[in-house]
């Protein structure tokens, strides 16, 4: 008899393969004695941190994006003197070296979890470092349990970049985590690479090694020891997904109403991978270049990176988001005052208040990249805009530098409510529905237990999206969506019906969204949107929209 585990699915992928359980990272000996020579022990611990950093840097050099960038950032974390200094102090206080190193890392990880937001994500990264350092000090091979002999579904409690780097991703059929979150690094990497992933699958660690699993990310289901009939159903889904991926035509409803289907990217490699199926880029996350850098990248470095992405989409548009950092995404080279509420602090375009030169230099580098690659349309947008005056300030700076098309992100309720006034200042807006849901519902987007509140189907969030879309229609200006909701085929129909002009998502989500949009008329999408807006709860909104979906789309996409 098969059993079914349920969790939160990442993407739409499906896979059938045997389970490979990653054993927990080694722990320090429970009775480790104090070091006989404290100075020698401290030096050994420092070398262990340096060794782990070097291993991660080497792995980054051999990995594809986005894993490469994450590993480079994690390698720098391992060299943070705070960790080795804390371990040294513990050793001098009588702790054994392995115990001291583990406790030093765990202490910082716990602090980051308490901060929430982006910082909480890094706690998992730190625990990956902890496991490697402990293994190094114990003389163990940290990658032994990650060795895959055949195509397998990786099962673990959580998966840090340090662990992911030891996996042969070509042999990873899917990832199933009993913990984790939909916006953690593992989920981001899986989504970007098109690896089926289910997180918060309670009971996953009880699965025996080698047990056949069938993973359906679209439904968040993991079937343990599936029957022949269940295997056939999943294989049919695999075949359907392959057929959908073969269609790369421009996005449009069945009666010809255009809806641009764009990709979210963070690096040139991301852009290269997305180019065959996307009509352009709807979100280029430029902060990848800045985060965890010891010094600010100069204008030439920035221009080269931006140009590399633009070159992948000749004749198309690339929407670039300026630096979305600060507060909960700290920059090592920029001193910022401590904040009690980082998600509500100096972040995104608000950095212009405290680091004007940094923002100005990026704007000028973007303009230079646009001149260097004239065949591609560069659209620049600023994140965390709350008022029309902030939008006007960004527009003034960007246009003065030579950026032709200027817009802003709508991520906070204030911007959605004043979208008409904001659109009077800029050429377009793009809805970041992840943050919009977070700020509207006062719920940390990284807390999986609050996922019901963070749903884009929440009536209050949907109403803000609709308000912004109406403002765009009134102004005759584009309104895009670049949050994860754009990659949901059912929500894509709602957004199209509301008047959204472009949908940007992970490249792996494009085929299903393209199919859904193409098999409905614009009028059908409008009826679906109206039904969702009329609902009183998120569940009712999703059900009302689903009830109006064409039967063939429901069958093919499993809606």
Task: Outline the secondary-structure elements.
Elements: E1 3-6, E2 8-10, E3 14-21, H1 38-62, H2 67-78, H3 81-92, H4 97-115, H5 117-138, E4 152-156, H6 161-164, E5 172-177, H7 185-193, E6 197-199, E7 212-216, E8 221-224, H8 228-245, E9 260-265, H9 268-274, E10 280-285, H10 299-310, E11 317-321, H11 356-372, E12 377-382, H12 388-401, E13 405-410, H13 413-417, H14 419-423, E14 428-431, H15 433-441, H16 459-475, E15 479-481, H17 489-498, E16 502-505, H18 510-518, H19 522-533, H20 538-547, H21 551-557
Parallel strand pairs: 3-4, 4-5, 5-6, 9-10, 9-16, 10-11, 11-12, 12-13, 13-14, 14-15, 15-16
Antiparallel strand pairs: 1-8, 2-6, 3-7, 7-8
Give a verbal description of the structure.
- The structure is a single chain.
- The chain is of the alpha/beta class and 559 residues long.
- Helix content is 46%, strand content 14%.
- An eight-stranded mixed β-sheet has the order 1-8-7-3-4-5-6-2.
- Helix 4 packs antiparallel against helix 5, helix 17 packs across helix 19 and helix 19 packs antiparallel against helix 20.
- The longest helix has 25 residues.
- The two termini are 26 Å apart.
- The mean pLDDT is 89.
């Amino acid at each position: 008899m098969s059993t079914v585990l349920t969790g939160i699915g990442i993407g739409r992928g499906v896979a059938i393969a045997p389970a490979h359980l990653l054993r927990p990272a080694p722990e320090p000996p429970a009775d480790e004695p104090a070091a006989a020579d404290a100075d020698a022990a401290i030096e050994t611990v420092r070398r262990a941190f340096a060794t782990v950093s070097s291993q991660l840097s080497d792995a980054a050099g051999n990995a594809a994006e986005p894993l490469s960038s994450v590993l480079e950032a994690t390698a720098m974390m391992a060299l943070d003197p705070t960790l080795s200094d804390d371990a040294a102090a513990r050793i001098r206080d009588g702790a054994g070296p392995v115990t001291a190193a583990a406790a030093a890392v765990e202490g910082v990880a716990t602090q980051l979890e308490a901060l929430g937001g982006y910082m909480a994500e890094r706690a998992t990264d730190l625990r990956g470092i902890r496991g490697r350092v402990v293994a190094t000090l114990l003389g163990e091979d940290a990658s032994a349990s990650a060795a895959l002999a055949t195509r397998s579904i990786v099962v673990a409690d959580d998966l840090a970049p340090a662990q992911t780097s030891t996996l042969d991703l070509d042999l990873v059929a899917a990832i199933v985590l009993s913990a984790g979150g939909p916006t953690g690094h593992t989920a981001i990497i899986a989504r970007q690479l098109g690896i089926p992933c289910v997180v918060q699958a309670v009971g996953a660690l009880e699965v025996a090694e080698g047990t056949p699993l069938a993973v359906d990310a679209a439904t968040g289901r993991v079937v343990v020891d599936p029957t022949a009939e269940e295997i056939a159903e999943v294989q049919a889904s695999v075949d359907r997904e392959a057929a959908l991926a073969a269609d790369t035509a421009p996005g449009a409803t069945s009666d010809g109403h255009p809806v641009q289907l764009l990709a979210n990217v963070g690096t040139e490699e991301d852009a290269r991978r997305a180019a065959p199926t996307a009509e352009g880029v709807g979100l280029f996350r430029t902060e990848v270049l800045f985060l965890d850098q010891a010094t600010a990248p100069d204008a030439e470095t920035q221009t080269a990176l931006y140009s590399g992405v633009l070159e992948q989409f000749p004749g198309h548009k690339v929407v670039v988001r300026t630096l979305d950092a600060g507060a909960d995404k700290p920059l090592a080279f920029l001193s910022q005052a401590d904040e009690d509420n980082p998600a509500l602090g100096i972040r995104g375009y608000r950095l212009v208040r405290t680091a004007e030169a940094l923002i100005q230099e990026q704007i000028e580098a973007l303009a230079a990249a646009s001149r260097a690659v004239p065949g591609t349309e560069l659209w620049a947008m600023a994140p965390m805009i709350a008022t029309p005056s902030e939008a006007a300030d960004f527009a003034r700076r960007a246009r003065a530098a030579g950026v032709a098309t200027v817009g802003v992100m709508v991520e906070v309720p204030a911007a959605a409510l004043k979208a008409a006034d904001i659109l009077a200042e800029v050429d377009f807006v793009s809805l970041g529905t992840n943050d919009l849901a977070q700020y509207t519902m006062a719920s940390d987007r990284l807390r999986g237990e609050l996922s019901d509140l963070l749903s884009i189907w929440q009536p209050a969030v949907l109403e803000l999206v609709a308000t912004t879309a109406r403002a765009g229609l009134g102004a005759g200006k584009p309104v895009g969506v670049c949050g994860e909701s754009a990659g949901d085929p059912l929500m894509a129909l709602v957004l199209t019906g509301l008047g959204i002009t472009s949908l940007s998502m992970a490249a792996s989500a494009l085929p299903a969204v393209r199919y859904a949009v193409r098999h409905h008329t614009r009028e059908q999408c409008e009826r679906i949107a109206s039904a969702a807006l009329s609902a009183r709860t998120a569940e009712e909104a999703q059900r009302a929209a689903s009830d109006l979906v064409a039967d063939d789309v429901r069958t093919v996409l499993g809606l």
